[in-house]
Amino acid sequence: GDRMWHFAVSVFLVELYGNSLLLTAVYGLVVAGSVLLLGALIGDWVDKNSRLKVAQTSLIVQNSSVILCGVILMIIFLFKTQLLTLYHGWLLTLCYILVITIANIANLASTATAITIQRDWIVVVAGEDRSKLADMNATIRRIDQLTNILAPMAVGQIMTFGSPMIGCGFISGWNLMSMCVEYLLLWKVYQKTPTLARKSAKVEASELKQLNVKKESDMKPAEGVQLIVEKDVTALEPQQEKEVGCAARIAEPFITFRDGWVAYYNQPVFLAGMGLAFLYMTVLGFDCITTGYAYTQGLSGSVLSLLMGASAVTGIMGTVAFTWLRRKCGLIRTGLISGAAQFACLILCVISVFMPGSPMDLSVSPFADISARLFENEPLPTIASPEPEMIFATGMPDLLNGSIAPANSDPEMSPEPVPLISVSLLFAGVIAARVGLWSFDLTVTQLLQENVIESERGIINGVQNSMNYLLDLLHFIMVILAPNPEAFGLLVLISVSFVAMGHIMYFRFAQKSLGKQLFVCHTPDPKAASDSSPPGNTSTV
Fold this sequence. Notes:
Transmembrane segments: 20-46, 58-79, 85-109, 269-295, 301-324, 336-355, 418-437, 458-481, 487-507
Function: May be involved in iron transport and iron homeostasis.
Structural class: mainly alpha
Oligomer: single chain
Protein name: Solute carrier family 40 member
Organism: Cettia cetti
Largest sheet: none
Family: Belongs to the ferroportin (FP) (TC 2.A.100) family. SLC40A subfamily.
């Protein structure tokens, strides 16, 4: 249900605003900004409340918000003409604001659900078995990849053969049904795992990290964070007996925000988390930006759907590679190998920028398009009515865009065919890189699970989500500043540079953790690893 909604909400907003991307852009900006600002607060709320309460509350809020949004969208689709005439269209604008606000609440609740289930519950259920934890992480990611394929297909078919209103009703009904099923499943897991009922409210001096047994001399990086938290908790205890003033209540969210980011910075896996966040600063994914570029190169929707399916398959291959590499080389080295594989595949994207068919033109300013519209008052381009002529001429018109040139067209007036070498290399690199990408993502996810103490799991993962959204927001800003196709090649080069910087950060983390054993690809004995590993290395197996 969540995947259906994430796919459909953008389509619904485009339909509502007359095939304009304005509402979709506003929604994306609101969602990214909200998680960026509230990620730490959401994580802190997860830490301070019982696991069952957090899971149930976030699940109910998420699904209820989606259901409510679906109902409002159905009303708008039914009575859009009447709403447009009331109060000079302000009532319809209010409905748009209401939809975006409720959809944003659903996304925040989804973030809380992901933190508590995928970053906390799964660690407790796995116990001290790291292999079981790795397998569970990989299984969840495979399910996620499959739903990424099936959910858009289901909603797309319903909207194609039905209508957007029917799509809204279907998603609302599905989320109502899935909420009940998920609620029961969570309750059963909670009952079968008694340790989920025990949650540390504050950091004790004897507390060790969930999946690692280390000597006290080896825990210096973690002790820094631990002592800070102990000091904060101890200092707050006398104050809790007093009445909290209005100013203190107002300042509390800001203090939590600051403390969350400070605690994130002090984590031994900080560089690994930053490395993962830097991978979000890229146009080399199957989002609306890359899809739009593909359309300018003559690829049709059917071809793109096949490419998206291929990317999901390679993503699943990445989860399989993660579990195999972890058993053979250890967790930290798996991240190194995955990062190297991803970067090697992205070299194809760099090569595609300079191949025939690439629209990159360094003589055209990347900011020419936006500067013309903002400062020279040029009108925005409008979508012309379809004509029986080939817009994007390629070597395979029937396969790529489904249109053919008219028989009586003038050869001198028809556009030259666009070579497919550049776009083919681009998508070959993007699809192949998914193997390394998802293996690396699972590596960092498990590092955070294993190396963050239980009482800080929520807030640290909340800040990690904020970092991911921050870099994702920057990549959208980069595209807004340079939207013309001639600049896409530069965006590709910048994206690959950020991916390289992310993996350099991870390499630095691995070097600090493993030292001279960095390139010794074998699974060390757990007892030997716990006795001889350098400070900060908490996950060598």
